[in-house]
Write a structure and sequence with these properties.
By secondary structure, the chain is an alpha/beta fold. It contains 37 helices and 33 strands. The protein folds into seven domains: 220 residues, no CATH class; 130 residues; 55 residues; 178 residues, 3-Layer(aba) Sandwich (Rossmann fold); 97 residues, Helicase, Ruva Protein, domain 3; 47 residues, no CATH class; 204 residues, Ribosomal Protein S5, domain 2 (2-Layer Sandwich). Helix 14 crosses helix 16, helix 18 packs antiparallel against helix 19 and helix 27 runs parallel beside helix 29. It starts with a strand and ends with a strand.
Length: 1140
């Protein structure tokens, strides 16, 4: 005996779909397949169909019918047998019918087909009674199993696996609904992402492909709501069609579509059938799947099924009816689809059918599929041939399996204690298996563990593919262990966050209680009231102007009505804080003692007579008037001459507070005028900050580097300084933040600058400029001996040591190392000398002579602690060389200074100076020490570091067209001076004896090249005109210039000599280079007499000229051509001379 589906395959016409006789079509949203109709209705269908004359028309009608069965095991034979018994058909009639059928089997095809029908029905009737009880038992077993599975997953299983009471029979008998087909060789394959499906657990998938959506609806309409779900290997892929078996994992699940939801229905309900662009929204379908078992994908169907063979005769018609129409009584129980009927061989023998014909028909029906109606949709959908996967056999008493299951249950318990979601799922699973022992179904336990875990997709797929119970449990246990670790980590994070929140809540609660208790006891008033009282106390001590007092009262009243939590509260509080910290009416007493001021200025600085005299004049006026108005003094000079330190000395001499801020590179006007209070973090400008810090109205404010102030998109700070530095306006200086006038008229402003050219003219006009010239060698010697050397000696720890720098060494240091006009570089070298001497002394004495640390004076206690950090290598007293201590001791003890023996003496002379400061920086003072060639003259320049320099000027000529080439990194002003000098020489070429006649243009046939050595140093300024003209005349007249003669001064186009600056530094450079005669502009005589010390002018003859003819007469005095110039280039009066 074989199942009825074999007979159906052998006898049913191929064209008839296996789902064509389904009675009762489920709706598209049905949660489960609709059961078969009652037996009386089936009989009526059968009779109506059998009475039709044409088989082909019936086949077409059945093929288009929406009614279908789920499987090839279609006919419930018990129903048909019981119906025939009720109509009075006994065994005798059956025997006669069988005899007639055998007799007529060979007479006509029509009779043969009818006999086949009768035999099949009788065979089914005879077997019905034997298997009726067995079917009921199986139905009950499947009902319990389905209920168990649904309970484990937290939802009810589909109706196709459940048993319910028949509501239409009225007799209370159980009717088993159609079960899930055990064999389903061909399915619609649906790829899924993220994680695989496991039998017994629902999964909702969204389908976007129109063809696949149509196929799903066709399956539901034909009562075949079954698909195969397979996991995609590429997690980023999003497709509803499988084009290659390599896209998916080979093992998936056979799933039932329990319900579907279309987006088109939702859009119609929400009246949103179009998207933003106006086009219809693409339809999507959400299908809820319920997996039943594991399947393996064998092959991908790429074409539709072959054409069915032609069916002729009533025999095939009868066979189709017998295979498709159930006949039974209305109240008969719907039995299982697994009923067995006589085998194909027995049917062939009973009917007398030809063996070859039967085999051919059976072979033809092997390819018949339950979903043949989907073939026309290929290749837009994916149909696959699949096979069921069976769990490998195992022993129930396997100790390894039981041990793994026990461990899984233990892990489940641990996870359930950490995560409530797991607790609910485990409780549901436990209830579903309460009737049976969980150890009897280890495979379900493994599937449940994998289904509820959030493990890696590859690990989950491995559980799905595993057919060995032990292996599946092992993999499920691994996934659960990882889930346990994640649960523990989540629990720890949750506990930490909760503890922090609880701690803050507890602190807040206790603080509120504490405030309430203190308020009840009167121990502490409200914070805002206390703040208001503090502001009132501070304001009472200040002499605020009337306008400022009014603003203060308004802001204080606003503060009293604001809540402390309001953002405006902090803004108002900060403003009141600044308003009460400005020293309204508070000023420091001033010292107008001239003798005291003179002593202080002389102690701090050597020289600077002009600056000191101006400060003493300021004090004298203040002493006579009883008060000192604010002044604006600008100290201009080269770097390192002590401009900033002069400002500190002035403040100390006057007894005023000192505040310094630099404006070098400043581009934001808010640094001077402050920010508006509307901005977050707003604060007043530097002047108001200075008043707050010094707490007095009459400080000395030093504005450093005023010549380097910048300008940006935030305003021009130099313009903001105008109001602050103008004595007529700073009586009511208005800061943007304060928004009340502040009196700055009593502030003494001192500005410093290196040059005056970059200071804006309106700002410079408000200042009183004091030139701070560079120091000459003699001044540097005194500064080094009286100030720099003692300070460096004390700072190096050599205060009581016999160490001396000889004057010759200092003089050598100044001449060959530190030629700058300032003393900053000189201080660095003297500090270096004392540091080298300190290192030499310590190295000679050895570190063993260092004293032990002692407690500092006024120290109450000594705290010592050990640190885990290892110290650097250091030899302590008593330690072995190179041995490091185990720990570092941090202590408050101080080490006593090293006592140096009296026998140590250090002398720094000009001979060993190189050992302390290295080789000299400058090697010689001038380029030409002997008679230079024709075309070379000596000029004087002022360097950027504030020092002077002797600069030789070299000129040569070559055949050309009268051009002039300039090299030596010369600036635009020097280039113009060279052009003017050459033009004057060409205009007076005949008078100078360069040409033989005024019409001679020999000079225009020569190109002239002028070069100033030391090309790495930029040269600029109007001070080399006379030296350049002298070099041109020397070249063109072929006359040498005395190397001991140097000159400086600018010339005009008609030969006038113009004054220049920086004479003190230039004369100092000439003195250092051994120049005997200086030719300088006559207009600079007063400057030289007043500012240049006699020690610098000693040994130099000064020739003051105001015309270039006087220059060339003086430079070339004693030569033959000079005698001719007395006639051709006479001078009105000889130049004035001075010899020192």
């Amino acid at each position: 005996m074989v199942p009825l589906r074999v007979v159906a395959r052998a006898r049913a016409p191929r064209l008839i779909s296996t789902s064509a006789l389904r009675i009762g079509v489920p709706s598209a949203a049905s949660a489960s397949p609709t059961p078969i109709a009652g037996p009386s209705r089936c009989a009526a269908e059968y009779l109506a169909w059998h009475a039709r004359p044409s088989l082909h028309s019936q086949v077409r009608a059945l093929h288009s019918s929406p009614r279908s069965l789920k499987d090839k095991r279609w006919v419930n034979s018990a129903q048909k047998a019981q119906e025939e018994a009720e109509e009075g058909e006994g065994e005798e009639a059956e025997g006669e019918t069988a005899t007639k059928e055998e007799t007529s089997a060979t007479e006509s095809p029509k009779g043969k087909d009818k006999d086949v029908k009768t035999k099949v029905v009788e065979a089914e009737a005879s077997e019905t009674a034997k298997t009726e009880e067995k079917s009921a038992a199986e139905s009950e077993s499947k009902t319990k199993q389905a209920a168990s599975t649904a309970s484990a997953s937290g939802v009810a299983p589909p109706e196709g696996v459940a048993a319910t009471k028949s509501a239409g029979s009225g007799k209370g008998k159980e009717i088993a609904k159609p079960s899930i087909p055990e064999i389903y060789p061909q399915v619609l394959a649906l790829p899924i992402t993220r994680r695989p499906l496991f039998p017994g657990f629902y999964k909702a998938v969204t389908i976007t492909s129109p063809a696949v959506i149509k196929a799903i609806r066709e399956l539901i309409a034909h009562g075949q709501p079954y698909i195969g779900a397979f996991l995609l290997k590429d997690s980023d892929s999003d497709s509803d069609v499988i084009t290659s078996l390599d896209q998916v994992h080979p093992v998936g699940v056979f799933a039932q579509i329990t319900s579907v939801f279309s987006s088109a229905d939702t859009n119609r309900q929400q009246n949103a059938e179009t998207d933003e662009s106006g086009e219809p929204k693409p339809e999507t379908l959400t299908a809820v799947l319920y997996p039943h078992r594991r399947i393996h994908i064998d092959e991908l169907v790429v074409a539709g099924p072959p054409e069915p063979p032609t069916i002729e005769g009533e025999a095939a018609e009868a066979a189709a009816v017998e295979a498709a129409v159930p006949e039974a009584k209305e109240e008969a129980e719907v039995a299982s689809f697994e009923k067995e009927v006589p085998s194909v061989e027995e049917t062939k023998e009973a009917l007398g059918e030809n063996a070859e014909d039967a085999e051919a028909k059976d072979e033809d029906l092997k390819h018949q599929s339950q979903i043949g109606f989907l073939h026309p949709l290929l290749p837009e959908i994916s149909l696959t041939n699949v096979s069921n996967l069976v769990l490998e056999p195992h022993k129930k008493d396997n100790q390894v399996i039981r041990a793994i299951m026990g461990e899984i249950l233990a892990v489940f318990k641990e996870i359930a204690q950490l995560q409530p979601i797991f607790r609910e799922q485990i409780a549901s699973f436990t209830m579903s298996n309460s009737a049976a022992n969980v150890f009897d179904e280890p495979d379900k336990l493994a599937d449940f563990a994998a289904a509820v875990s959030t493990g890696d997709v590859h690990d989950l797929q491995a559980v799905l593919e595993s057919l060995s119970v032990e292996d599946r449990l092992q993999k499920a246990l691994l996934i659960l262990k990882k889930e346990l670790i994640n649960a523990q980590l989540q629990s720890k994070i949750s506990r930490d966050v909760e503890s922090k929140i609880q701690k803050r809540q507890r602190e807040y609660y206790l603080m509120e209680q504490l405030k309430g208790i203190k308020k009840e006891l009167g121990m502490e008033s409200d914070g805002k009231d206390k703040l208001v009282e503090r502001f009132k106390e501070k304001a009472a001590k200040l002499a605020m102007p009337e306008g400022v007092k009014k603003v203060f009262d308004e802001e204080l009243n606003k503060l009293m009505h604001l809540e402390p939590a309001a953002s405006e509260f902090n803004v108002t509080r900060n403003y009141l804080d600044w308003l009460t910290q400005i020293p309204w009416g508070v000023h420091s007493p001033e010292n107008f003692n001239i003798a005291h001021a003179t002593q202080v200025l002389d102690e701090d600085h050597y020289g600077l007579k002009d600056v000191k005299d101006r400060i003493l004049e300021f004090l004298a006026v203040g002493k006579l008037r009883g008060t000192v108005e604010g002044k604006i003094i600008c100290l201009a000079g080269p770097p390192g001459v002590g401009k900033t330190s002069i400002g500190k000395s002035i403040a100390r001499a006057l007894g005023r507070q000192f505040f310094r801020f630099s404006v070098g590179g400043l581009t934001d006007v808010a640094e001077i005028k402050g920010h508006r209070r509307t901005y977050i973090g707003a604060m007043p400008g530097k002047p108001i900050q200075a008043l707050k810090k010094v707490a007095t109205e009459n400080p000395l404010i030093l504005i450093d580097e005023v010549d380097k102030i910048g300008r940006g998109h935030n305003g021009d700070p130099s313009s903001a300084l105008l109001e602050m530095l103008d004595p007529e306006q700073n009586t009511s200086f208005l800061d943007h933040y304060m928004d009340v006038p502040v009196d700055l008229s009593r502030v003494l402003f001192v500005c410093t600058a290196n040059v005056l050219d970059t200071i804006p003219a309106p700002l410079l006009d408000r200042m009183e400029v004091l030139e701070v010239n560079g120091y000459v060698s003699a001044e540097k010697m005194n500064i080094a001996e009286k100030y720099l050397s003692p300070q460096a000696k004390d700072a190096s720890g050599l205060k009581d040591v016999d160490i001396e720098i000889e004057p010759e060494a200092i003089e050598t240091l100044i001449r060959w190392y530190c030629r700058e006009s300032g003393v900053r570089n000189l201080k660095k070298h003297i500090d270096k000398i004392y540091r080298k001497a300190a290192f030499k002394i310590v190295d000679d004495l050895g570190e063993a002579a260092l004293p032990e640390p002692t407690e500092p004076e006024n120290s109450r206690s000594v705290e010592t602690q050990e640190a885990d950090v290892k110290p650097k290598s250091e030899r302590l007293p008593g330690d072995e060389a190179g041995k490091e201590p185990d720990t570092t001791h941090v202590t408050t003890k101080v080490r006593e200074p090293l006592t140096i023996p009296e026998g140590i003496h250090v002398r720094v002379t000009k001979d060993n100076l190189k050992d302390y400061v290295g080789p000299p920086v400058y090697h010689k003072d001038r380029l030409y020490t002997k008679a230079p060639p024709a075309g070379v003259s000596t000029g004087l320049g002022y360097l950027g570091n504030g020092s002077g320099s002797v600069m030789p000027i070299e000129v040569t000529s070559m055949p050309g067209k009268g051009g002039l080439q300039l090299t030596g990194k010369l600036g635009e002003v020097i280039r113009e001076s060279a052009q003017i000098a050459l033009s004057w020489v060409k205009a007076n070429a005949f008078l100078l004896g360069i040409t033989k006649s005024e019409a001679d243009l020999t000079v225009n046939d020569r190109d002239i090249h002028l070069h100033m050595p030391e090309g790495g140093i930029g040269k600029e300024g109007p001070s080399a005109g006379t030296a350049i003209l002298t070099a041109f005349v020397s070249l063109l007249t072929r006359t040498q210039v005395d190397p001991d003669v140097a000159m400086t001064g600018e010339i005009s186009l008609h030969g006038q000599v113009l004054p220049v600056g920086g004479l003190k530094e230039k004369i100092l450079a000439a003195h250092r280079a051994g120049i005997k005669k200086l030719v300088v502009p006559a207009a600079c005589k007063s400057d030289i007499d007043e500012n240049v010390p006699e020690s610098v002018k000693a040994g130099i003859e000064f020739v003051f000229v105001d015309d270039v003819r006087q220059v060339i007469h003086e430079v070339f005095r004693g030569t033959d051509i000079a005698q001719r110039w007395l006639e051709t280039l006479p001078v009105d009066e000889p130049p004035q001379r001075e010899t020192h």
